[in-house]
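ok so I'm stuck.
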Amino acid sequence: MPDKFEIATYLRETGLLLSAKGENQFKARAYLKGAQALESSQADLGKLIRENTLTSIPGIGQSLAKTIAEIYQSGESHVLQELKQEMPEGTIELSRIPGLTLEKIKELSKSLGVSTVAQLEKALEEGLIREIPGFTARSERALLGKIQRMRTRASAILLVDALEIAEELIAYMRSSLRGIEIEVTGDVRRWYEAVETVQLAAKHRHVDKTLNAFKKFPLVVDVQEENSDFAKARLANGLIVELHMADSIPLKLLETTGVAHFNHLQKIARKKGLTLTGDTFKMARRIIAVDSEADVYQALGMSYVPPELRENDGEIEEAMNDDFTDLLQMSDIQGMTHCHSTYSDGRHSIEKMARAAEKMGMKYITITDHSPTAHYAGGLTVDRLKEQWEEIERVQEKVKIKILKGTECDILADGALDYPDEILEQFDIIIASIHSRYRQDETRMTKRLLAGLRNPIFKVWGHPLGRLVLRRDPIPCNVEKLLDAVQGAPLAIEINGDPYRLDMVPQWAKLAKERGFSFIVSTDAHATSDLQNLPFGIHQARRAGLKKSDVLNTQNVSSFRKAVRPA
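replied:
not stuck anymore, here's the structure
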C-alpha cells in the first residue's frame, strides 16, 4: 500500500493538472493543500481510513478523503487517470508559461509533439509555431520572450512560496526521522523577498538515513550534488533545495544565514585566537560549548545580530555597541493599516475586517479603500465614500477597536491627488499611491511623485515604488532626490507587507531612516486572511534596521491619528 508521501504526490499532481485545465482554482488548491496536510500529519493513515476519520486532519474534506482512501486501497486515482488521459504529456511544465492555455498546449502536442519548454523553444526558434492554427509570427515572438523572461526568473520564487516549501519539507523530515533537529536557514531565514535556494540545517544521529529521506521528498526530481554531509536537489517547480548536516545546529545556522557576515565573524575570531567554522568553535584544541548563536557573538565581544541584518553592511560594528533589542517586533504593532473592504476591491465587509483585526489584539484599523480613478478596483466616488463613512459609524458602535476613515488615494499623472481637498481634509489617514501610467520615464515620474509628496495633505506614501516581486520592476524615479527634496516633511513611508509587493526595499528604507522619515508597516489587506501578512512587513522593516520608534503604528490610536491626519 502507498504511504502518505506517495499519496501526497498523487494529490499534488492532480492539483497542478486541475490548475492547468483552468478548473475552479479553489478545487486545485484544495488538492495541493491536502498534499501538504497529509505529509505533515503524524496520525496513523491506515487507522484513519479504516475508521473513516480522515477529515480530522485539518485541510482535508470529505471529497479529498474519498480520493485518499481510494489511492491507499487501490494504488490508483481515477481522477488523476482521467486528467492524464484528457491532457497532453508535459501539460504541467508548459502551463507555467504565461498565456499558454490548455487548448494551445493540446494543439502544440498534436501538431509538433511538443511536451517540454525546451522543445517548444526550439520549435519557436525554427519558426514552426506560426504554421499552427491559432498562432502567428507575432505570438511566436511573444512566446519566445515569455520563455526567456521565465528562464531568468525561474531560479527564484517568492518568499511566501519558499516558506511554504520549507515548512512542508521540514514537516516531512520530522515525520520521517525521529529525533531530528532541523531549521530553515539561508535567504529564507533572512526574509529575502525572493529566493533561489531553500536551505535547511539538520542534525541527526544517522546522517545517511537523513540524506536518503531528503532525497525521497516527493517533489524532488533531480539530486544535483551529494557528499557525506550535504545534499542538493531540484524540485518539480525548478526550485533548488539544500540540506546541510551539522554537528552543531547553531554553528551551521550561523555559517549559512549570511556568508559574508560569517566570514567577517571568522576574521574577528582569528584575531582573538579562536577558530570558528560551521561545525566547531574552539580556542586552540579546547572546544567551546555553543548552545545558541548568541554564545558565539558573546565570545566575540558583541551582541547577537538578528538574521535579517546579516548583510556584512555595518551590522557587526553596530553590534559592538547596540543590542538590537529595540528592533521592531510583531508585539510592537498596535494598529492594522492599509486595509480594504467590499466598498472597493476587498473581499470582506468593514465589520469583518475590524473584528478580525480586533481578534489579533489590534487597537485600531484603517479602512483605506481605493479612490475614483482606480475604477478597475471599485474606486469610491464621493457619494459612495459618504456611504462608507456611514457604514463605519454603524460598525464602530458594535466593536471596541477604533476604525479610522482612510483612503488609498491615487497619485495622478500630474502629481495631484484623486479627491478634492475638501474631501481629503475629512479623512483620518491618506495613503497615496501610484496605480497607473507606470511607464512614464524617470524624469516625469520623479516630477510626478515630487508634486504629490510636497502636498501638505499627503501624509503616507503607499507601496512607494510600485513593484511586484518577480513580476513588475520598481517605477523609474530618483528616490534619493525625492527623499532629499521632502526631508523634514511630516511624511511617513509605507513598508507594505503584501508578500507580492514588500515595498519599499531595505536599501531605500535605510536611506529614508537616515533622513529622519517615519514609517508605517502595513498588510495591504484585501481580506481578513491578508491581515496575516503582518510578519512579512515586520521582517522587511527589520531588514532596514527599523526600530519601534521609527514606526507610527506602534503608537496608540491618539498619537497615530495625530501623526497621520491630513493638515
